[in-house]
Design a protein that fits this description.
single chain, Aconitase, domain 4, seven-stranded mixed β-sheet
């Protein structure tokens, strides 16, 4: 996956409490491949589109310039519900690299880390302030610095966030689960050779 160091993009305020993974990507789209043309259209699909496929003009992600955003600022319990990893794939398909929220569904939080989307926990009052600024100033940007563990809002205020050393390391270096495993390739090869030499009779 792509390494995450610093990122600055238009912020998208999502004022939905308990925005679950079925709202992020409805279950009927889980059979589609991430490389398929139009996969990006599944993000917030039932919130963005009417039954006939036309856009709902009042939904934030359908408005210019928010549709070009790369940082979501959400309310409490973002990504709750079922553990579908596609809820992160569809964020990636829309070039969203950071979600800032007071709290996350645990599995969704882990899935974000594994796919290069940085989940940032900030206090609810801070998230409320950031969303208000983004509504007041459409097109305003939010900057995220992972090394410094800071978020800078549209008004220039900076906020610190916490992240585990393990997750910080993997994000800064662009290491997904396979990459993390391959860091131990020599040890794995040594184990396999030792097993073949000393325990081949088990096969």
């Amino acid at each position: 996956m792509e390494a995450f160091t610093t990122f600055k993009a238009i912020g998208i305020p999502i004022d939905i409490i308990n925005c679950d993974t079925d709202q992020i990507i409805p279950a009927r789209f889980l059979r589609f491949q991430t490389s398929q043309d139009g996969f990006d259209q599944f993000l917030f699909h039932d919130l963005r589109f009417t039954d006939d496929g036309s856009e709902r003009p009042d939904f934030i992600f359908n408005k210019v310039p928010f549709r070009e955003g790369g940082v979501i600022v959400a309310d409490i319990n973002w990504g709750c519900g079922s553990s579908r990893e596609n809820a992160v794939y569809v964020l990636v398909a829309n070039r969203i690299k950071t979600v800032i929220a007071p709290s996350f569904g645990d599995i969704h939080h882990a899935n974000c880390m594994k796919n290069g989307v940085l989940p940032v926990r900030l206090a609810r009052e801070v998230c409320d302030q950031l969303r208000a600024q983004l509504h007041d100033r459409p097109g305003a940007e939010i900057a995220v610095d992972l090394a410094a563990q800071t978020v800078t809002g549209p008004d220039g205020a900076t906020y610190d966030f916490e992240i585990s050393p393990f997750d910080k390391h993997r994000m800064l270096n662009g290491l997904d689960d396979i990459d993390m495993t391959l860091q131990y390739e020599n040890q794995i090869d040594g184990f396999e050779q030792n097993r073949a030499t000393n325990y081949g009779w088990l096969d």
